Structure formats: structure tokens, C-alpha cells
Amino acid sequence: MSKVKAYISDCYNELATKVSWPTWAELQSSAIVVLVAALIISLIVFFMDSVFQGTMNIIYSLFE
After folding, report:
1. Which long-range contacts (CB under 8 A, 24 or more apart) does 42-50 make?
2. What does the pLDDT look like over 10-53, one tens digit per residue?
3. pTM above 0.90?
């Protein structure tokens, strides 16, 4: 049990003293970058899916 307490204590000390936490402004700007990147990627995937669906509809209509 003492090993568990030592582990928790070490984790707390490392998180409190050695980790450099971002400021609120840095966190907000990073979140905006992630949001914009996710929107761009989702639009690209949507466009690719639409093109693929249209192509497949054309191919299927040839065999009806």
C-alpha cells in the first residue's frame, strides 16, 4: 500500500511542479485550430463522399 501512496504522491508532485500547463488564451487558440481543422477535414470527406456517390449512381444506372 505504501507503493501506491508513493506513486500517487510522485504523480501529484510531477503534475504540480514539472508540467507546463497552457494559459487560458493558449488553450482557446489551440481549441479553435482543432475545430477549424476538423471542419475542413469533414468538408473534404463530405465532398469526396458526394463525388463517389454520384459516380456510383452513374455506374449503376448503366446496368439497369
Report:
1. none
2. 999 999 999 999 999 999 999 999 999 999 999 999 999 999 99
3. no
